[in-house]
Amino acid sequence: MAVQADQAPQTSTPAAAAPEAPRPQDMRVAIIGAGMGGLATALALAKKGFSDIHLYENATGLGFVGAGIQLAPNLVRILTRLGCWEAIEKEATEIRETSIRDGASDAELTHVHMPNIRKMYGYPHCTGHRASLAGAIYDACLKEPSIKFHFGCTFEEVTEWTPKVAFTITKRESNAPDAPTETLRETADVFLAADGVKSKTRTQMMATLGHEASVEDTGQAAYRIMIPREKMEHDPEMLALIDSNQVTRWIGAKRHWIAYPVHNKTIYNMSSTQPDENFAAAPSATYTTTGSKADMMGVFSDFCPLVQRLMDFVPEGEVCEWKLRMHKPLPTWVYETTALIGDACHPTLPHLNQGAAMAIEDAAVIAEVLSRAPDTDPATIQRCLKIYEFMRKKRTTTLVDLAAFSGRTLHLGDSKAKEERDRMFAASKQSGANVPDKWASPDVQKMIYSHDCMKLTADMFDGLYEIL
């Protein structure tokens, strides 16, 4: 019918636009612990566009301490992508060789040349200072407005696991014994526990699932000492060590030292492993203490004069000693929308130099899977976290077991097994392969250093999401 001139044509009212579905990047993420794993998790999520990241740390501020650390290519790859590596590399030492030596005689058992690591894997193998690594990640986090730090906040417990995680925090203003405290009740869509080998979250999660998760002594302890260049530079033998691009390991029965230059070759870092017999009396709440120089010298009294002179440089009161503790492998790292990270789920002995690297790989994979979540339903988030566990659990178990195996091999006393190990060392000196010290063995390096956890997760996510 024709429309009259004085009649307005009828029009249909457009339908209201459907509200946008919540984005995974808008979820509230809580991270417990501002160690390597926690900091890297926060940064990796921020780089993926997550906008509401809360990191709770027991300390009232971050003052980074610690000794040296090896920075392998699989770790450097992630640090580069997170924008942290450039600052760390400025003071790092690129490692090009390693010497494994008999602790008592200083005779070289094998020498592994590593000049092509950067070319082979795209990234170098370096040594650096733990404070520089943690500090660079923290500085990068401070540039991300989506990351909020909550210092002086001690995680107490999860009170609800789902649909949102509800948890309590005790907040204190300072470290003073009489500092006032306040109980905070917080919630999060995703709860990530990077709270270390003493993880309260792990203990509570495993108890909820009917499993045991207690920490166990390994029977081993470690010393960390750092020797300034000025104490070494008047001794040609020592000067050669600190000026080198070499990791040196001196091994003996149940004990060893590993040493390398850090901080632009101004510090010589030394870390040991030995039976846990002289650890200063300490409650189970702490695993680190100031060690006795006399005890340290006694433990290694049969090591060669060079090692004796190096140890003697350390002033009394500057010997750091810590217990090496672990826990049994866990049946799962994930419950509802909560996941464990780093030492909270796979603590390791230090013999492969992969502890921090594994935690930071965890962080990168967590960010990959959560950024790919198709929606924010708790069941979807749990499925994504299960993909994280699938991508990480087998690899970390392999490395933890290999580190323990390597330690047992290095610490052999007089025996047929030691004779066979030393024959293998001698053969590897000629062949450059099958080194009994596994971190220096090219086949193990290839397995560890070529692993690109971020790319693998991106490539496999869709297929795994359908079946997990």
What is the second-level CATH architecture of the domain at 25-76 and 128-215 and 330-461? Answer: 3-Layer(bba) Sandwich
CATH top level label of the domain at 25-76 and 128-215 and 330-461: Alpha Beta
Number of helices: 15
Radius of gyration: 26 Å
User: Biggest β-sheet: count, sense, barrel?
Assistant: 8 strands, mixed
**Secondary-structure-derived class:** alpha+beta
Specify the overall morphology. globular
Distance between the termini: 60 Å
Mean pLDDT: 92
Oligomer: single chain
Low-confidence stretches: 1-9
List the helices and strands and how they pair.
Layout: E1 28-32, H1 36-47, E2 52-57, E3 68-71, H2 73-81, H3 85-89, E4 93-94, E5 97-102, E6 108-113, H4 117-121, E7 126-129, H5 130-142, E8 147-151, E9 153-160, E10 165-172, E11 181-188, E12 190-193, H6 200-208, E13 215-228, H7 229-232, H8 236-242, E14 246-252, E15 255-262, E16 267-275, E17 288-290, H9 293-299, H10 305-312, E18 320-327, E19 334-335, E20 338-340, H11 355-371, H12 378-410, H13 416-431, H14 442-449, H15 453-467
Parallel strand pairs: 1-2, 1-12, 2-8, 5-14, 12-20
Antiparallel strand pairs: 3-7, 4-7, 5-6, 9-10, 10-11, 13-16, 13-18, 14-15, 15-16, 17-18, 19-20
Helix pairs in contact: 1-5, 1-11, 11-12, 11-15, 12-15
Q: Could you please describe the fold and organization of this structure?
A:
- With about 475 residues, this protein is α+β, with helices and mostly antiparallel strands.
- The protein has a domain at about 25-75 and about 130-215 and about 330-460: FAD/NAD(P)-binding domain.
- The protein is about 35% helix and about 25% strand.
- The chain has helices at about 35-45, 75-80, 85-90, 115-120, 130-140, 200-210, 230, 235-240, 295-300, 305-310, 355-370, 380-410, 415-430, 440-450, 455-465, and strands spanning about 30, 50-55, 70, 95, 95-100, 110-115, 125-130, 145-150, 155-160, 165-170, 180-190, 190-195, 215-230, 245-250, 255-260, 265-275, 290, 320-325, 335, 340.
- The strands form 4 sheets. Strands 6-5-14-15-16-13-18-17 form an 8-stranded mixed beta sheet.
- The longest helix has about 35 residues, at about 380-410.
- The protein starts with about 25 loop residues before the first strand and ends with a helix.
